[in-house]
Amino acid sequence: MKLKLRIWRQSDADAKGGMVAYELDQVSEDASFLEMLDVLNERLISEGEDPVAFDHDCREGICGSCSLVIDGQPHGPQAATTTCQLHMRKFKDGDSIDVEPWRAGAFPVIKDLVVDRSAFDAIIQAGGYISAPTGTAPDAHAAPIPKQDADAAFSAAACIGCGACVAACPNGSGMLFMAAKVAHLGLTPQGQPERHTRVLGMVAAHDQAGFGGCTNTGECSAACPKEIGLDVIGRLNRDFRKAATRAA
Amino acid sequence: MAVSGILLVLFIIVHMAGNLHVFEGREEMNAYAHGLRTLGEPLLPHESILWILRIGLIALAVVHIWSAVVLTRRSLAARPVRYKSKKPAKGESRHAAATMRWGAVVIVLFLAWHLLDLTFRTVNPVKDVPDAYGAVVATFSPERWPVTVFYLLALVALGFHLRHGTWSAVQTIAGPDTKWRKRTQALALAIALVVVVGFAIVPLSVTFGLVK
Fold first, then answer.
1. Residue ranges for chain A with pLDDT beneath 50
2. Does A8 lie at the interface with B, CB-CB under 8 angstroms?
3. All domains in chain A, ordered by first residue
4. What is the DSSP pairing of strand A96-100 with strand A109-111?
5. ipTM summary value
6. Which residues of B39-75 are buried (b: 16+ CB within 10 A; e: fewer)?
7. Minimal Cα–Cα distance from A111 to chain B, Å?
8. What dihedral angle (degrees, nearest 10) is formed by the CA atoms of B74, B77, B82, B88?
9. How many CB atoms lie within 10 A of CB A248?
């Protein structure tokens, strides 16, 4: 298949950047979106041009590295799918495809399509952990957890921290990411000691990093490759209200 | 944002219900309007409760708008470079991003007109304050159709505003689980529909001669 690509090129963090058009022929419909970019990059390198920089690692949909806004949609048009798991058969011969980086003040562009997501690390450092005894792993049933809590915690823990929620949010809010961590840790007995300091700390770090406020439009959840639901945001709000009233 | 919003929703429902007195005729409607002014009398001075409620409403509106300005400014700052490619919204409140802020501007403009029209009567043909019924009939008369159209337009903006705002406020304050979020969304839609129909029925009845 033949594609008309428009890709955001930006030589470094301070450069202005802009969309650059490329035509790519003989693209296999079995190629993943990233493999299609690999083919383009091989051509650019052979022509002596600078290849398009983009983040990727596992290419199995579980690491959270890939981060492309394809035709205005984080991770592209296919629901519950990371960019690396999106295949070219989802597109048609002759399609024009726009590729942009995540857009958020808290995620500055490093180069081309690569953004700096260390603002998420700052949120995790502010409370996304548990105090646990070190040593060998405890027995599987040492801490009894109701089945529905374990399932809900596991669903929230499916968050890979890719940042598609921020990229999709009209307010550039990191609420869904943060709420997934709060739900994942707060649903298990191991997460209880820091339950209240966690939510206060993470929200403060989130706001400090320059993310926007949540207005419950639900775009985050619709874009999430792991289908994290808005219920985790409800849970964060509940925990935040309790923690804030207790702290006051 | 959420707390002031919920309280304003309650006011709007009471206001809508109060408007329906117009179908009981001139006497009943004016008695209801008079009753609002004389609440608590003779224990309390004339219009005292009314003014306490009015000051409360103004405070709620100020808090609500101020919160909206803060949120909007944060939101603009959080995405300094915009996307070149637009995507269709597909979230649970997909109309919200497009309707909440612009709809709010329509509602504020309408509110200014509405106060000049039916509270202060500056732009209303009936200057006699106790005749609330007469003022309603006069302002929505068929030859003043742009007033009615503006009223209905503002109602549509209000309807979209409530459809998202009500459940969003509950999500922020109470943080329901998935089952209760869906119920809250259904309730928000029901409130929006009831409010729009309940308010729209008054000017439409006047325009089409059911209320004279």
1. none
2. yes
3. 3-110 (3.10.20.30), 117-247 (1.10.1060.10)
4. unpaired
5. 0.93
6. eeeeeeeebebeeeeeeeeeebeebbeebbeebbebb
7. 14
8. 0
9. 5
